[in-house]
Amino acid sequence: MLTSENFLLIYYIVMSLLGFSLIILDKRQAEKESWRISESALLITSLLGGGIGTIIGIALTRHRIQQIHFVIKILLTSLVTGAISYYLFSQQFVGKKLDWIHYLWILIPIFVYLTIHILSYCLRLYFFMQASRNMKRVRVVLPRTKEETSAEIIHFFDFLNNILLPTFSWQYYVFGARFFSWEIRMDQNGAKEIYLSAPSDLMDLIMKNLRTVYIHARFESVEDAVDERLPNQFRQLQFERHWSYSLRTIEVKDGKLEHKKNLADSLLQILDELEGEGGIQFILHPLSPDKQLDQQTRNRLSKIGGSIYDVEIRLFASNASLLQGMIATFGEVDVANNKIISEKLLRFKIREWFRNIWWSLVKLQAPSFLLGPKLRFASYQLALLLQFPTSNLRVRGISRFQHRRLPIPQGLPTGDEVNSPIAVTEEGVRVGLNDAMWGQNLLVVGTNGTGKTTTLGQHASHWLAREDEGALIISSQAHDLMNILQFVPDYKKVYIIDMDHPGEYGINFLANDEHPAEMMIEDFISIFDPPFAGKIKNMDFLQQALLGLRKVREVSPSWKKAVPAIDLRHIKEVLSNEKYRLHLIQALPKDSPIRRFWIERIQLMRNPRYYVTNIAPIINVFDRLLTVDRVAKTLCHPRTIHLKKALLEEKAVVAFQCGRWDYGIDVSEFAGNMLITLLYHSILHQRELEPEDRVNINLILDDAGGYATRVMMMLMVRAWKINVKAALAVHSWFDLPEGMRIFLNIVFPNKMIFRSHHQEDAEHWSNWLDLLDADDFLHFKHHYACLWLKADSEQKDPFIVRALYEQEKARWGKFHFDRSWPKTEQPVKLNPILLPNLGDIDESNMYSPPLKK
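The structure corresponding to this sequence follows.
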């Protein structure tokens, strides 16, 4: 007789063996990189009583052990079946004959599983509807520029998958993933638009990434992209065969996607040929991370291009002929030997019954759970399907952006009148600055990749080639510095200081004992502004520390020997080391203001609250500057480069790479400010020379937003007296401190403004230049810019140009890299921090209680 004990024992043994076998099989398939057993199959097996065997299989094979969420699910399902087993084995069933009602207990895990899934779907549907009410839409305005389809679009869809998915896998089953909409619309007047929709908090990030693919396209925010009227005709599309036939890798050749025809071109052409209103909507919704990993393994998808989406393709039109035309266009698309066809008749009839609900989902750009078939695409397939129309598409009603054609103002030097042309117009006319205009300086505004750095080098190439002029170049990145050095001929001597590879020289301007201490103090403080001004509340300590060190080296030979050259480490030592500070006080003249300053603050600095408020922030800044060994060796190098000799006597080129992205923007700006201060001190004496005895100095600063300090202002105010000519490049006008913008606008009347990436920048320039509006600045083509020059004491009208790059002038890059660029970090030994031997400290003369022992 089959009793409950016998039946359940045999049942659970069989199910455990099945669970164990499935884990072993899945392990072997994973090792072969072949098809895999789905996670759902393993979970259902565990729910039906195979949990013990599944857990034993995981423990023995160490398979899926790193998928914590999966292991937790297996344990929970095992607990559920264990609880049911305990109940079935209780006294009321033991020894009794089983009837049909008892067998229903075996199905309880299935009911639990289905209940959890239904609850998950309901929760996700609720959060989907909430998210759909917070969508942001943008309209795409296409350029007239021809643009190749780059393989970067694949990376875009991989990136989109990552930001649409929640942070943790379990959140997907509660909140779901976000979604993205791509659609084409045609109104009754024949106007055709492309709209993109995404969650409002993600749209800016998505647009920023998409601009790296379509650098000439433009995006405009719109309130609503979908008409409220319910269309007469509508369909959704599906695959002819199962979607798994379509998941295979495509080839990318030379960074370009190979495809026969652009789908967007085809759709726009069919909309143009037929009458009526219509639209196509793609709703992209990522699969759960678990399912994506499973499908990537099953189909051997690569990590690049292997992100998987559920995609709904919705068509709607005012008449049947337009709808059939769009369906036929999709039918021409071959997705890995799988066709895209219209949905089945039964599904369409169900949609007709719920057409109002379906249309509300279309208007909200939201995915549907039950009302539409879904096509499963990998991101490399979406990269082929969802492209912007090509530039050679000729249909009515498409908005395309083009540059204004503005004439060259009268009175500007062109052609042979220009010493070093920097740009060329659409008509092929070369423009730039001549000798008379060069002294008025040039400001180049543009982000990376627009051509700003090359423009600096092209602009300065004529003067960099002169044997009777020196030049100082500062760049925040090594490759940008080389882009300028390639214009320096081989007969010019070049000094290169690379903060990544400290070498023979450093930039420690504090070691200059010839410069008056009072002026040195003002310049020293200005170096900290703007990089660290917000972090240091009281600059007096910096001033008095430097003044104290300068003074004791004048009056005490022991201090002169202990500190052969002042650097940042000595300033820090005065502030952080009380013993060092007391020795400094003892060596200062008794009635000096510096001594009185430090005596008054001895007890204050011993107060923890005062120290944390006033001293600790300064110490933190110095730690920021000196913690990295390479930075410390550059800023505190025992041998400071002799700029006076290099620039004025040798007429050499001094180039400095300050590592903006390696060490941080603040450290990079501080280092650049220190070198500019050293330049100012080295050439200031030229104002006392006769004009014919002065040497022209060309100052070229890339990423110069943080260099606009007091010293920079003084340098440019006296530029005509000390023969400094400058060319600066900044990412944004608002990178410059507010107080410096008016000043630099005066001393830099010549400007070349590339494409802006910020609305604030674009609006600023459009307010200044009546002939151009903000959209012009936001959507310049690659290497195109607005050139705004001053000639004959008159500010001319702006006009549009393309940056010029003369290869015959830029041929010295490899020469300087091989001969002058430091390849390895040289052994630089900094001067040790020594305490002069002045005997014991006598605090009785310091008007301060003695130190507590």
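The longest helix spans residues 4-31.
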